Amino acid sequence: MKDIKQKLIKLFKEGYCTPQIARIAKKIKEPSTTIHYNIKKLEKEGAVRGYNAVFDYKEIGLGYCTYLFIRLNTENYDKSEDIAKQIAKYENVESVDIVTGQYEIIVKLRCKDSDDYYVFVQRLLKKYGIAKAFSMTSLKQVKTEFVNL
Amino acid sequence: MKDIKQKLIKLFKEGYCTPQIARIAKKIKEPSTTIHYNIKKLEKEGAVRGYNAVFDYKEIGLGYCTYLFIRLNTENYDKSEDIAKQIAKYENVESVDIVTGQYEIIVKLRCKDSDDYYVFVQRLLKKYGIAKAFSMTSLKQVKTEFVNL
DNA sequence: ATATTTAATTGAATAATATTCGAAAAACAA
DNA sequence: TTGTTTTTCGAATATTATTCAATTAAATAT
Chain B: nearest CA to A77, how far in angstroms? Predict the structure, then answer.
């Protein structure tokens, strides 16, 4: 047993997927070369950032999903973008947004369980100047990444 | 001009992408048939729900991104899952979660602009028994769908 | 309006890739 | 051990992506 599963999951998050040109061509009844041309154009324009897999996260040991809301200390307020980028680097972070309202940053996190989550958040709070944080835990994921579950 | 772009964007949200078996095989130095076998297994298990494109949403006219927090009326409280599923059906809804805390549902929305957003939210509030809702608008998307922007 | 340039479409040929099949090896259970 | 199921993987085939060159369409300039 080579346990290729974990390697695949990792690569699928990085990309390693590609459009199905022939299938699209059949679907919208256009020559595949035309589809090819248009897709390459979208990629060059930057409209398409990549292609990746959508998981059932429970099945890959990341069933604990939380939204974390962060308010920075006043002295770090101007560094929100830097801090957001730092947080974005962690692989269990699905998304990071700088937002309007009582909190500066919304982080969507995917962890194995609450222990895993707790360790991660404690580390974040210490590392960056975070005045206040609270979280909402997903009890049921109804839709993710435009895919209905 | 056939304006294939919009059709591609629509199809890419539904899937119409596929893993790059040969590229993965080279990357982790295993035979492509072994990779093929393992991917099909992941799909059968349901761990992989599909493959799709990740966009730079500004580039495809969906630059206005908001998180919408919904509290239901007490008489609709037991219907939260039904309502969440209804909301999930709209194509500009990226994700829907039923969560812990002061609000029952978190919706991540992608709209063209604030007008577009306003029309959508007003419709939602009327249609479902929503006691209270508030939103946070993304000023800057730092990471989405595990992709750094 | 017409010439000029640029962008988009497409078929044919080729290159690359996915898939099927069957056999062998490994893991697992009784 | 023995039989059963799962996983690996090479060879052959089927399918798909990509390149190229030519045509057409669209945009732009004169």
Answer: 14
In this prediction, residue B13 carries a pLDDT of 93
> A32 to chain B, minimum CA–CA distance in Å?
12
Is the distance from CB of B105 to CB of B91 less than 8 angstroms? no
In this prediction the pTM is 0.91
Chain A hits for B23, Cβ within 8 Å: 16
Within 106-125 of B, beta carbons closer than 8 Å to A belong to: 106
Split at pLDDT 50, 70, 90, the class of A131 is: confident
Say how far apart CA A74 and CA A33 lie, in whole Å: 55
Distance (Å, whole) CA B106 – CA B75: 19
- Using pLDDT thresholds of 50, 70 and 90, give the confidence band for residue B11: very high
What pLDDT score does A76 carry? 78
Q: Which domains does chain B have, with CATH numbers?
A: 4-45 (no CATH), 57-147 (3.30.70.920)
User: Do B93 and A143 lie within an 8 Å CB cutoff?
Assistant: yes
Could you tell me if A62 lies within 8 Å of chain B, comparing CB atoms? no
CA-based nearest residue to B82, from B131, B133, B128? B128
